[in-house]
Amino acid sequence: MPRLPGCTSSTHGRTRCPRGCQAQAQSRFGLRTIAATGKTQVNAVSSSSALRRLAAPGLVLLMTVAIVLWAWPESLPLWRSVAIVSAWAGSGLLAASLLLMVREPHLAQLLGGLENMYRWHHRSGILAYVLLLCHPLALTLDSWLESPQLAWQMLAPWAHSWPVWLGWAALLLLMFGLSVTFVLRLPYRLWRHLHFSLGLGVLLGLAHVYALLGGVTLLLVLLVAAALALGWRLIASDLGVAAHPYRVTQVSHPSGASIEIRLAPCAGSLAVSPGQFVLAAFNDGPHFHGCGEYHPFSVSAIHADHSLSLNIKAFGPCTQKLQQLETDVLVRLQGPFGIFLDSLPAAPQLWVAGGIGITPFIAELRAHPRSQPTTLLYLFRNAAEAAFLDELTALSTADPKFELLAQAGERGLPDFAAMLEKIGQLQARVVYICGPAPMVNALLPHLQQAGISDTAIHFEKFDFR
User: Are 462 and 359 in contact (CB under 8 A)?
Assistant: First the structure.
C-alpha cells in the first residue's frame, strides 16, 4: 500500500465551484443562476447527456470497424475470410474493452460516466469472446471442406506450434474470466484478482497474432495500447499511485445503518460537484483496520474549506468495518466520477431516492437552494435507516420550492402508481432516480405510463463493481 504524505499542509489547492457559481462566499449554500428557461433547457441537457453516453459505444464501434476494414481479406474462401474477420473484430473489441476499463476522471466524463464505461466494457468483452471463439471454429470448417481429419487437427492445440498455443491459452483465460464475472458471485476481493485473468488473456491473444504475422504496425499499436491500459489500471488505479490523500476529521451517524464522514485534504483537493462519487480506500488507524480496497461512495457534502463528506452504508465486509471508523485515519481518494446531477435544467424536477440513494440529493440540497419546483420522493425501510430525514424535513420547511415526500416500507416495493398521483405537474418534470437496481427497474415503467419521455428520466443504479 503506498505511503501517504502527512496532513500538515495548510494549502488545500483549488476546488471547482459546482456549475459556475460565482458567489459562494455570500451564502452557506452558494448561489446558482440559470439563464435558459423551459423546454429548450431540458432538451439541451438531455441531448448533451445522451451524446456523452453514446461516446463509449461509438468508440467501440469505431475501433472495431477501423481494424476490420484494415484487415479485410480479399480472394479467400468463405470460412477462412470469416475466421480472419472474426479474429480482427474480436481484437478491436478487446482493445476497446481495455480502454473502457481505465479509471480516469476526465476520460469518464467524456465517455458518459464510469458506470456507462463499465457497462460497455462488459458488453464489448463478451462480444469479443464470442467473435474470437468463432475464429478457430471457422478455420475448422474451412479445413473440413478439404479433409475431416485436417479439421480435427485444427482443433487440437498439441498438433500446432507455440503461437497457436498462445491463442488457445488466451481463449481459455477469457472463458475463465467471463465465467468469474457473470456466472459466479464471488467476494469482491477474490473477484477483483481473478478478473485480471481477462487482461492477461487479451495480451496473450494479441501476442498470438503477433507471433503468426510478425511486426505489423497495427498489432504493435494494439499491444502497446493494451499494455498501457492494463498498466494504468493496475498502477494508477488499483495500487492508488494517482490517488489523493485525505484524512478523516469527523464521524457521525445520520442513521442506524450508515455513517457520514468528513475528509480533509492532505495536499491538493478534488474538484467535486454534487451528485458525484469518489473511490475511497481506507488505511489502518490505532483502533481501526481498513480493508485497503477502493469502493465507490457518493459525496454528501462539499465544504468551503475544500473538505468532503461521504455517506457510507454497511453492505459488505468492507463497509461493515467502516461503521467503526475513527478520526485521523488516512484515506486515498480517486475521482470524482459521475454525471448524474450534472447541469440540472430550468424545469420542475422529481427526485426519487431509495435508501442510501439519498446521498447525491442531500449534497445538491446542501450546495444550492432550489431554483425550480422540486419534489423529493424518499423511500426507506424504517425511520431508523432514514439518513438525513430531520435535515430534509427542515430544508423542505425553509424552502417553498422544495417538497419532501417520505415513505417507509419494510417489505417489497411501494405502490409507485399511487405515489406518482400525488405529484403535481408530473409530465412537465425532469426525473432523477438513485437507488437499488430493482427499485429503479420497477419505477421506470410507471414513469413512462405517466407520459414522461425517456430523455427526461435520469438514473443511477447500485449494480456495478
Answer: no
